[in-house]
Amino acid sequence: MAIREIKQDIYAVGAIDWDRRLFDELIPLPDGTSYNSYLIKGDEKVALIDTVDPTKSQELFNNLKELNVSHIDYVIANHAEQDHSGTLPGILDLYPDAQVVTNERCKDMLADLFLIPEKRFLIKEDRETLYVGNKTLEFMKAPWVHWPETIFTYDREDKILFTCDFLGSHLATSDLFVTNEAKVYESAKRYYAEIMMPFRSSFGRYLDTIHNIRVDIIAPSHGPLYHNPEFIMNAYREWISDNVKNEVVIPYVSMHGSTAALVHYLIDALMKRDITVKPFNLTRTDIGELAMSLVDAATLVVACPTMLIGPHPYAAHAVFLVNALRPKLRHVSVIGSYGWGGRMLEHIEGMMSNMKVDFIEPVIVKGYPKENDFSMLEKLADEILERHRRLDIVSPENILVRTPVYKK
Ligand code: FEO
Question: N or C, where is the chain less crowded by C-beta within 10 Å?
Fold first, then answer.
């Protein structure tokens, strides 16, 4: 990545990964990502904030060489995950006097991951500072952005807050700062949904902390920087709030068309009640899109055929993910089909132990759905509408429309 100056003596020296399409061997990255690393040349000391994914080490080394950085005093580790710490051993080899500045918990994790010796660490705890000459760097604990050790680093004089994963976006772009807020909103929401959503209860506190210090620039470790911190902070406030929307998410899979017939009927039934529906065919969906839809939705309907004696594995995968992400859903139901028996429903309900939701009467049919089964879907759609009304998320003009029962 080309070096860019953010402010005088503060440079972006990380790497853009235009081609990366998967993170954690799970999370799709349709727009690539970046591993942001920042160099601060103080009057007295030189500090590097975070490094880059090990696949991009050479780019960081080249950038430091281009800037004639012959000496680094401090490498600040905001987070131990390898996409930011993976080049730490290489930097410590190149700059043998450099100390790793982080908190005790992160130190232990870095020592475990990279066998970094104790003497290379300088421990700074919450609100402690490091003076590098004309700049004072303050460290703020932010555990459970998604790992337990994370910190933010605040450059008091330049009013830049380095937030690591928090507020970031998986987006490869040549823009140093956000220029297209709509695009970044989507990328940041996807990132939030995929790994941060389970920890959202802490985030209001972090946003309040940021609000209470003056921050001109937010510099995350993925994606472009924010000149307008309020943009991303307001987005996060919306996502972490307890508010849900009049939306139903339907992850589904169908082997021979029976479950698909239920899904398509239910989609129409919900649409006729002015409920937003987001169906995801699990044989081809991007799991990140499904995660994003869960940020706001009030209701989830899992649609699943019975395979052997349990749920289809694709549906089980989706339910496992939903349970892990702990979205703020209020209601869950299951629809699906079976040939001769099985325990698909029990398996799916049993996989939702993290979810504090009300289960709505499922619609499970034998073979292809029949008239009575479609009537049951009408009742399910009525029940979802009624529950959404009780949540006060349905606009007054929503009118219950009863439709003729579907005939095959
Ligand atoms: Fe970008 Fe949690 O690492």
Answer: C
Residues 381-399, mean pLDDT to the nearest whole number: 89
Nearest ligand 1 atom to alpha carbon 168: 1
The 10 Å Cβ neighbour count of residue 24 is: 9
Which segments of 44-114 are extended strands (E)? 46-49, 74-76, 99-102
Report which protein residue has its CA nearest ligand 1's atom 2. 81
Distance, CA of 223 to CA of 171 (rounded, Å) = 5
CA of 23 to the centre of ligand 1 (A): 10
The ligand 1 atom at the shortest distance from the C-alpha of residue 221 is 1
Quick one: which atom of ligand 1 is closest to the CA of 35?
A: 1
In this predicted structure, the answer to whether residue 84 has a pLDDT above a threshold of 60 is yes
Domain boundaries, the chain: 4-240, 246-390
Task: Tell me which fold the domain 246-390 belongs to.
Answer: Rossmann fold (3.40.50)
Q: E strands, 31-186, where?
A: 33-35, 38-41, 46-49, 74-76, 99-102, 121-123, 129-131, 136-141, 151-155, 160-164
CATH topology of domain 4-240: Metallo-beta-lactamase; Chain A (3.60.15)
- Indicate if the alpha-carbon torsion angle 257, 263, 264, 265 is positive or negative: positive
pLDDT at 395 over 90: no
Does 190 sit in the ligand 1 pocket, CB within 6 Å? no
